[in-house]
Design a protein that fits this description.
The protein is α/β, with parallel strands linked by helices. The protein is 57% helix and 7% strand. It contains 17 helices and five strands. Helix 5 packs parallel to helix 6, helix 9 packs across helix 10 and helix 13 packs across helix 14. It binds zinc ion.
Length: 346
């Protein structure tokens, strides 16, 4: 029986990889594809440990090699991301938005030097969709004829943005959102050891993204920002059009914050729909149940559905670079037209 890999969820993928490692039947390239913050990089890093480990029962997590993989300092492991590109090319950090062909060429040169410590050489490309078309075409050559000791591990949140020829030359491992209960249970164990109530809250808010839950636990500003976001929503619903216009202006100025705000609001409206349709399970904002239940009594399903649809159209419009101020104003003002704010009807 092999060591249990320290991965939360993804049982199917883990057992597949464990089998392939045990039989020495690994493919030369894997593509881990799925939503952000679900553990794709953790899984690729553990697979790298399994191959480079010097212990008896890889990945032992304890030997010098395993520790070096965690610190990203193993001589037979190369990470190919934007910070690595900054170092490789000696460029400014602010100039890094895509993975360039020059970087791929440098990595390729390094790959043809034999491993120093282990039997394998592992290349991790955490956001493979950031390769330019030229970089991806250059990388194809490595995928077609890799040196026998090479293992190429790509991860992506946007598999549709990769060249089909890249995808077809990798063994694709699709990864999905985790079950809320899996996250809730994991957070109560070491190293996090959260109280049951906090584990439950973070697991629900994470929407199945273990990475988000861990970040929210480690960085208190994550929950504070969410709190602020939901308070803004209450101001939008209870306020007048002047206040809505002010909020629209503020959001349009801060595109990243604006998108996060819309993502949080959409969970709130989805919860509202769930309550209105009599479903009590599956709420994301479990700590807001009372407030949601109150609004659910005064809004009707059609109003909620219309607000959620308009919100999703706004997200899509902003993703396609429309005028942000106009998009925000149209959305927030629609909330005063679609129905009186809930507060005034209670
Ligand atoms: Zn080890």
């Amino acid at each position: 029986m092999a060591t249990k890999w320290p991965i939360i969820g993804h049982h199917h993928a883990v057992s597949l990889l464990q089998r392939e490692v045990a039989r020495g039947e690994l493919a030369h390239a894997y593509l881990f594809a799925g939503p952000p913050q679900i553990g794709k990089q953790t899984l690729s890093s553990i697979l790298a440990q399994a191959l480079l480990c010097q212990g008896d029962d890889p990945p032992c997590g304890d030997c010098d090699s395993c520790r070096r993989v965690v610190r990203r300092q193993h001589p037979d492991l190369q990470i190919l991301d934007l910070p690595a590109q900054t170092r490789l090319l000696g460029e400014k950090t602010s100039a890094q938005h895509v993975l360039k062909i020059e970087t791929i060429r440098k990595v390729q040169q390094g790959l043809f030097r034999r491993p120093l410590q282990a039997d394998h050489k592992v290349i991790l490309i955490p956001e493979a969709h950031l390769m330019t078309t030229a970089a991806a075409n250059a990388f194809l050559k490595t995928l077609e004829e890799p040196p026998p000791y090479a293992l190429l591990l790509l991860t992506t949140t946007q598999v549709e943005d990769l060249l089909p020829t890249i995808v077809s030359r990798c063994q694709v491992v699709p990864l999905h959102l985790l079950r809320i209960t899996e996250i809730e249970t994991a957070l109560q164990r070491p190293p996090w050891k959260l109280e049951a109530a906090q584990a439950r809250l973070l697991a629900h808010l994470s929407g199945g993204r273990i990475g988000w839950a861990i970040r929210a636990h480690e960085d208190s500003s994550v929950l504070e920002e969410r709190q602020e976001t939901l308070e803004t929503l209450q101001r939008v619903l209870a306020g007048d059009d002047l206040e809505r216009m002010e909020i629209a202006e503020r959001m349009a100025r801060l595109p990243d914050q604006g998108m996060e705000t819309l993502a949080a609001w959409s969970t709130w409206w989805r919860d509202l729909l769930l309550l209105q349709s009599g479903a009590d399970n599956g709420l994301t904002n479990v700590d807001r149940r009372d407030e949601l239940a109150r609004v659910a009594r005064v809004w009707d399903v059609a109003e909620t559905y219309s607000a959620l649809s308009t919100l999703q159209e706004t997200i899509s419009a902003l993703e396609h670079n429309v005028n942000a101020l106009l998009a925000w104003e149209a959305f927030l003002l629609s909330l005063s037209v679609s129905g009186q704010p809930a507060e005034s009807r209670t």
